Request: fold
Amino acid sequence: MFDRGMLELLGKGIFETLYMTIASTALAYVFGLPLGVLLCVTDNNGVYPIPAVNKLLGFIINFLRSVPFLILLVFILPLTRAIVGTTIGSTATIVPLVVAASPFVARMVESSLKEVDSGVIEAAQSMGSSTFQIIYKVLIPEAKPSLIIGAAIAITTILGHSAMAGFVGGGGLGTIAVNYGYYRYQRDVMAVTVILLVIIVQIFQEIGMRIARHSDKRIR
Reply:
């Protein structure tokens, strides 16, 4: 059913998909994690309330999250070209993936941090801990299991977006599915790419859940 050339193409597609997904997730957390912390800390019930900053950040994040990924991908093509010099391929796809995923990650982080017991935070404040100390010694450590689960959800969401980028030559399994399964009506290729994407999602999800369970001190 598949010749050597197709198997090599699928292997390359798997590599490009993993490359886009992992690199985009890492960069999304570089931007999204600080934003999520800032959203939590500056909230009215946060450890350092700044309502004006919180509302502005919330508006920007909600605006970016409301734009469908394919539209965002096309809209920021000039930015993508300016950063990586091209608008096609797996490396170029990382730019819109990061722009789309960072607001999502920020909300995931904010939600995880807000799950931390307020009593623990109040205890740290009563001992004279600074805002910085509360963030890095209380909020993030206490929310670690939830943050890891959120990361597993984020990476699978980004993987789905990377597959959608195949419609504009984004590379990876998504491009193979579009070029061969959609345009050339090779449904067997489409089926294999879908199965491979499902397997990758399950692997990422299982790894994330295992790490989260291991880091949860409540079940030790």
Observations:
- The radius of gyration is 20 Å.
- The mean pLDDT is 90.
- The domain at 4-219 is CATH 1.10.3720.10 (MetI-like fold).
